[in-house]
Amino acid sequence: MLAASRSLRRLSSSSSVRSLRRVLQHPPTPQPAAPPPLWPLRTLTRAFLPHLAAARGFATASFSSSAPSRLGECGGARGAPEIPEEVEVEDEAGALVRHDTDAYAAVELALDSVVKVFTVSSSPNYFLPWQNKAQRESMGSGFVIPGRRIVTNAHVVADHTFVLVRKHGSPTKYKAEVLAVGHECDLALLTVESEEFWDGVNSLELGDIPFLQEAVAVVGYPQGGDNISVTKGVVSRVEPTQYAHGATQLMAIQIDAAINPGNSGGPAIMGDKVAGVAFQNLSGAENIGYIIPVPVIKRFISGVEESGKYSGFCTLGVSCQATENIQLRECFGMQPDMTGVLVSRINPLSDAYKILKKDDILLEFDGVPIANDGTVPFRNRERITFDHLVSMKKPGETAVLKVLRDGKEQELSVILRPLQPLVPVHQFDKLPSYYIFAGFVFIPLTQPYLHEFGEDWYNASPRRLCERALRELPKKAGEQLVILSQVLMDDINVGYERLAELQVKKVNGVEVENLKHLCSIVEGCTEENLRFDLDDERVIILKYQNARLATSRVLKRHRIPSAMSSDLVEEQANNGEVEASCTS
């Protein structure tokens, strides 16, 4: 990823940069009704609705349309059925009213395909990792694809405890099961066991990436009403964009159709096929929405079909610097006709770590020349960062890199796979790990923990932990930064209460690899004293047997059900079984 590209830090912390926000609908606070805008006559009229409803076998329903824009032919370049740009119908007074039909076509497709998703979720409390926060209800959209599956956004069902879906025109909600969730790409697959649900349901087909200024219609259930809604717009931009939910950079399509809370997971229809999935908008801007393009959707679905679960998106594991300065290029031996980017940092867990070297010039990726700014050609005179080529590869696939090293060109093969950061960016759909001993609460550092410090978490959270979370790379697989998050007061730990929010470096002289390692060292201690070495050369000394007795006392006082999270309990049980089998 180029150093100049937008980072999660800039996205979340800079007040001067508009941040992307997920468009997940929560039950809105009632607001006084605003007068409807005086748009040109492009809203479905009451006179025309009965004819449309009768043709589809549904009762008359109200639809909303906003953000009118000048539209071209919807998908005509891809052989979509020709639809007249406008139709004339009579209003209640008998006057002819002219309407665009792009929205009509979208409604025709969506009536039997788009569903409303109702989610009950409960997120963990990372300050008190043994308990969850209060459950909340939210709503989003989804649409049916072949194979009796429903596509929606990952943030619509994140941390779910119960999911229901409802078809348009039906009063019945059906229980849905989550088949797979990809938080990096903000996509999820649902299914419904009830046969009744699938009666009369049509599936939507995935199309192609739309060109600039092509018209799309976003269909879903945004806030402001309970019925289906269609908004129209055109494609403004296609490029890799920061995904707010997963904090990853993947291709996205910017459109000027209104995408509001509740639209999340709904399809953006172009012609008679899906051009993308609505998922976020740009806060503080008018009618700037984003949809997930078809290549990302197909990559997610194919990964689930092949492995039975979400497989992740590949990364090369390198940080690159642009080589736009001629002095920089000359220093590294680049000829005037050469273009590429400078390799500045390599993830030790990546395959590239064994093949590439710092100060290599990356010239080509799979035969595609990389420009000095890190972009590659895309369609008709468009350019995107070469990260997109990497992300579209399947885990385990090989990429051929052409590099310039010490003035000589070389072709190298690299195996691509998803890489996990040292400090996890998100922890959805799983319980946080923790370990309590003598009132000291130990946890692995995660960004969700830092987010508990508030919206301005970058400035409000401990500075040292925040910098490590955003910048440090893992040195080996399974490594975690274990921190002392808080001290639950007891006689045993008096005087140590100010040592919270520091990283644990060693336990009894042994460097800590991760939380499981720390837990095993403490539980297996045979010495009289137990020593913890922390940041800033701080030290904690405990009488081990007294500390074990104090642990039970602290747990009872604070009504904590267990001294360790379920994953550590299982680890301890497995270790006990192994030791028992060895001694027998």
UniProtKB/TrEMBL annotation:
Gene3D superfamilies: 2.30.42.10, 3.20.190.20, Trypsin-like serine proteases (2.40.10.10). This is Protease Do-like 10, mitochondrial. InterPro entries: DEGP_PDZ, DEGP_PDZ_sf, PDZ, PDZ_sf, Peptidase_S1_PA, Peptidase_S1_PA_chymotrypsin, Peptidase_S1C. The keyword Transmembrane does not apply. Residues 19-38, 64-83 are annotated as: Disordered. It comes from the Eukaryota. Residues 423-567 form the Protease Do-like PDZ domain. It comes from Panicum miliaceum. GO terms for biological process: proteolysis. Residues 27-38 have a biased composition (Pro residues). One of its GO terms (molecular function) is serine-type endopeptidase activity. Keywords: Hydrolase, Protease, Serine protease. Pfam families: PDZ_2 (PF13180), PDZ_3 (PF17815), Trypsin_2 (PF13365). The keyword DNA damage does not apply. Residues 316-415 form the PDZ domain. Belongs to the peptidase S1C family.
